[in-house]
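Worked example 2:
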Amino acid sequence: MTLLPSHWERGRIKWDTTMVAGATPSTEDDSFWLEGGDPSGTPFVAIADMSRRECVSATAKSLSSDGLKSRSMPLGEPGTLLFAMYASVGEVAFLDISATWNQALLGITQCHLA
């Protein structure tokens, strides 16, 4: 076990951050989906958008406002840390843009430590 620097505090991530699971609207309803980069939509992050990247600055798909409302989608701001819970478990990337994400990802949106 490595020792923490003396100025660090040990804690549980679930108590010191806000974590938000993603979701995916129905892929059967074309009105929910837009091509990535469409300025009228909200970028939708999938694991493929974050693979081997430190920051997500663009996505392959975007959601319409109806798509966002259909599943009460989370919205993360730049700096949100995304963590893959399935498939590529442990893959991480920061959002460089405001975006939402799918059910395979967990967004860590705030740190409550002083």
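The chain is about 10% helix and 30% strand. The mean pLDDT is 88.
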